[in-house]
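FORM 12-B: Structure-to-Sequence Request
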């Protein structure tokens, strides 16, 4: 299933993230695609709020993985720097752990991804406007999109 939303502001994207966070079930995996500055980390901030996480989510670019504790733990990956080296680092264990994995630059981790996941693509339209396309792969993600 595919759903598209147009976000007219930063706050719109945060709100969509909060709704996604509310609907998240344990061990889900979301992959985030979009150019630099599209809003991947912004959406993740909203998702974190929806998971009841109090601390501020920042871009994990220099750390690859940040873990936040909430109703469900959030594993926020930024695989930008991992091209070709991901297997040696044991990230599978994190992706399969209890909680939600949100992965930016998942194309650098492609061998480690489960077959069922939610793909989130963010397209820059103009300064304040973004189009967000959500594609569900697997039944639990179809259900999530139906409720969104
Ligand atoms: N509708 C919108 N949704 C999301 N962000 C928006 C929107 N309008 C403006 N912005 C701005 O766009 C920027 C998005 O930055 P963000 O760090 O979330 O992007 P990113 O995709 O994670 O980038 P990177 O690839 O560098 O990690 C922020 O400065 C935010 O304020
Ligand atoms: Mg980012």
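FORM 12-B RESPONSE
SEQUENCE OUT:
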């Amino acid at each position: 299933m595919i759903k598209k939303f147009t976000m007219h502001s930063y706050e719109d994207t945060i709100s969509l993230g909060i709704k996604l966070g509310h609907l998240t079930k344990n061990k889900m995996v979301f992959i985030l695609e979009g150019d630099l500055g599209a809003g991947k980390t912004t959406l993740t901030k909203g998702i974190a709020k929806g998971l009841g996480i109090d601390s501020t989510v920042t871009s994990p670019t220099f750390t690859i993985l940040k873990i936040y504790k909430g109703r469900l733990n959030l594993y926020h990956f930024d695989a930008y720097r991992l091209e070709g080296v991901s297997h040696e680092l044991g990230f599978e264990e994190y992706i399969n752990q209890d909680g939600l994995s949100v992965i930016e630059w998942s194309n650098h981790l492609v061998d480690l991804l489960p077959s069922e996941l939610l793909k989130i693509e963010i397209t820059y339209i103009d300064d304040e406007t973004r189009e967000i396309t959500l594609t569900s792969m697997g039944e639990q993600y179809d259900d999530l999109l139906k409720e969104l």
